[in-house]
Amino acid sequence: MIAHEAVAFIAGIVAGAITARMAPSRRLSHATALALTIISATVLATALAKPPVHALFPGWYPYALALFSGVGAFGGGALVSGWVQEP
Predict the structure, then answer these.
(1) Helix, coil or strand: residue 85
(2) What are the boundaries of each domain within the chain?
(3) How many Å separate Cα 33 from the centre of its chain?
């Protein structure tokens, strides 16, 4: 479980950094929009699909992964926004 959480968080950081770097302006806003999209889409898909509870993963686990990914995306955007001057 910890490895999955770490991979989701790192993937979120990379996605947020790429999104912020590609944004023409307001880099952190674009990364925040990505983070909110990741969280809302994953939570909605998980709630609608109602996956069966696995013996190794509790029922709240997909929601935690969505949160880790979203926070990672925001963090990656914040890192890039701090490193690159706004045009």
Answers:
(1) coil
(2) 2-83
(3) 10
Which of 41, 29, 28, 30 shows the shortest CA–CA distance to 67?
A: 41
Give backbone dihedrals phi and psi of 11, rounded to 5 degrees, phi first: -60, -40
Q: Helix, strand, or coil here: 81?
A: helix
Over residues 34-78, the pLDDT tens digits come to 999 999 999 999 889 877 777 778 888 889 999 999 999 999 999
Amino acid in the structure at residue 4: H
Q: Which helix (H) or strand (E) holds 1?
A: none
Q: Which tokens in the block code for residue 37? A: 């999209």
pLDDT at position 43: 92
CB 61 within 8 A of CB 2: no
